[in-house]
Amino acid sequence: MSAAVQENKMGTMPINQLLISMSVPMMISMLVQALYNVVDSMFVARISENALTAVSLAFPAQNLMIAVATGTGVGINALLSKSLGEKNFDRANQTAQNAVFLAFLSFVVFALLGLFFSGFFFRAQTDIAEIIEGGTDYLRICTIFSFGLFGQITFERLLQSTGKTFYTMITQGVGAILNIIFDPILIFGLLGFPKMGVAGAAAATVFGQIVAFFLALFINLKKNKEIQLRLKGFRPNSYIIKCIYAVGVPSIIMTSISSVMTFGMNKILIAFSSTAAAVFGVYFKLQSFVFMPVFGLNNGMVPIIAYNFGARRSDRITKTVKLSICYAVGIMLLGLLIMQLFPTALLRIFDASENMLSIGIPALRIISISFLFAGYSVICSSFFQSLGHGVLSLWVSLLRQLAVLLPLAFLFSKIGGLSTVWFAFPIAEIVSLCICTIFLRHVYRKEILPMKEK
């Protein structure tokens, strides 16, 4: 095993080839994930606009689960890849074992929250009975069966940490395809299945996640030879858990801030109309096609940086960051172009009414201006996390979403009406870019330059 790890491609392969080989499978799988998110809402929209709004209002709670799972995964990635780079195999194995333990605890917490508080969550946002009933059913299913989500993401992170991103493309792809297939079957009651409505969309989602979880577990046991998953006699290791969460908690909070922001934006928008909130939900589904590939790029980038940080290879770290920024900005520019040229066609995917089109077309065009700046900021934040400076990423997210975006959106809603609310997004992203540049210079001088001087 030692020889295999010493020859790990993250320390030897040319950076551009390595980044592409690590990231492209993840980008493809993320695009499939984005596709099934859109398909989910596309079918729900055919029930009614209130059904679409219910799913949109559920997003902050769903995003919170994803925040905990992926944030913990960032900590797992950073510690496990760094341990392999340092040839510390025992710590790598303990990291993997404690990761499984943390995934189980996270599932238990969210299952209990979903069971008892889903109804309260929707009543806090609206008094429309159809939205409350459909949304509560949807969210309860997503949380009570969330072991699939937490298990899938955790075991995929173990594969990513050892450079086996091709397998994560398979697991995510299988889960997403199953979700797409079962969405219309369970929502509309096809092929002898009961007609479940909005709850059917949730059932299809968790079914895909559960299958992907077991597939990722199987692949880890059979193919991931660089770590050993032996849970017999396992005891939680407080030091390992602390190291995981030292990086993971800022990432969890950072992503959770998005839930707070979305909840706040929904409250601002639903004061105008439920259609305005539905438009915001549709935007989030559509923008995932742009951001998901960049997040896939991040997932390929983080283990490369963490591994080479452990191996003290500053040249490989610097080149990885530069290439990642170039690729991310290119993806974002393509997304901007599509949003500017085809907003009507994008909205009609969701059976948009004339009222939704009148709100949604300017909304998509204005919000997408933020794409010009977002790619750079996303890569910088992941770079901070991969070197153990997750708090800096947290500050970027806090300032962008809670100190700038939400207050500006609220202010604009009062002085300029709905049409001006959307301008808060590009303004917040410009602020984020400035902050990221300051933090990037700080981290480079603290972590990278000392390597070059030795």
Please state the structural category: mainly alpha
Shape: globular
By DSSP (H or I, 4+ residues per run), the number of helices equals 17
Percentage beta strand: under 5%
Radius of gyration: 21 Å
Gap from first CA to last CA: 30 Å
The major β-sheet equals:
none
> What is the mean predicted local confidence, pLDDT?
87
Could you give the order of the helices and strands? HHHHHHHHHHHHHHHHH
Number of domains: 1
What's the gist of this structure?
Helix content is 84%, strand content 0%.
Structure description:
The chain has 454 residues and is an all-alpha fold. It has one domain (2-453). The chain has 17 helices and no strands. It has helices at 2-6, 15-45, 49-85, 89-123, 129-144, 147-161, 165-188, 198-223, 238-270, 274-310, 314-341, 343-348, 354-367, 371-386, 390-415, 418-421, 424-453. Helix 2 (15-45) packs antiparallel against helix 10 (274-310) and helix 7 packs antiparallel against helix 8 (198-223). Residues 1-7 have low confidence and may be disordered.
Write the layout of secondary structure elements.
Elements: H1 2-6, H2 15-45, H3 49-85, H4 89-123, H5 129-144, H6 147-161, H7 165-188, H8 198-223, H9 238-270, H10 274-310, H11 314-341, H12 343-348, H13 354-367, H14 371-386, H15 390-415, H16 418-421, H17 424-453
Helix pairs in contact: 2-3, 2-7, 2-10, 3-4, 3-5, 3-6, 3-9, 3-10, 4-5, 4-6, 5-8, 6-7, 6-8, 7-8, 9-10, 9-15, 10-11, 10-13, 10-14, 11-14, 11-17, 14-15, 14-17, 15-17
